[in-house]
Amino acid sequence: MFPAIKIAHFIGNKSITDIARQKNAADPNGVIANWMRNRNTVEFLGIWETLHNPNFNPLEFEGVRKEAGLNAFC
């Protein structure tokens, strides 16, 4: 479903799914879907990937970033 994006610098070795399970154990995918609709979340992930992922493709991500926050996104 969603990749286990690691945010090790901030929270240790927890994935976004682990964090979402703490918020809603019955439906962590719903929590993640809501987060991904938020433009600020998408911007943060883009910056994080730029800094920490040598294989990150900023041109491909630009399309995702432009659509973040729109009703049709996700």
Quickly list its features.
0% strand, mainly alpha, 74 residues, 5 helices, 61% helix
Q: How is the secondary structure organized here?
A:
Blueprint: H1 8-11, H2 16-23, H3 28-36, H4 39-52, H5 58-67
Give structural notes.
- The chain is mainly α.
- 61% of the residues lie in helices and 0% in strands.
- It contains five helices and no strands.
- It has helices at 8-11, 16-23, 28-36, 39-52, 58-67.
- Helix 4 (39-52) runs antiparallel to helix 5 (58-67).
- The longest helix has 14 residues, at 39-52.
- It starts with 7 loop residues before the first helix and ends in a 7-residue tail after the last helix.
- The model has no long low-confidence stretch (mean pLDDT 78).
Task: Give a quick rundown of the structure.
61% of the residues lie in helices and 0% in strands. It is built from 5 helices and no strands.
Percentage of β-strand residues: under 5%
* SSE pattern, N- to C-terminal: HHHHH
Q: What does the radius of gyration come to? A: 13 Å
Seen as an oligomer or otherwise, the chain set is single chain
Describe the largest sheet.
none
The number of E-state strands comes to 0
Q: Label the overall shape.
A: flat
Q: Give the count of helical stretches.
A: 5
Mean pLDDT: 78
Low-confidence stretches: none
Distance between the termini: 12 Å
Structural class by secondary-structure content: mainly alpha
Fraction of residues in helices?
A: 55-70%
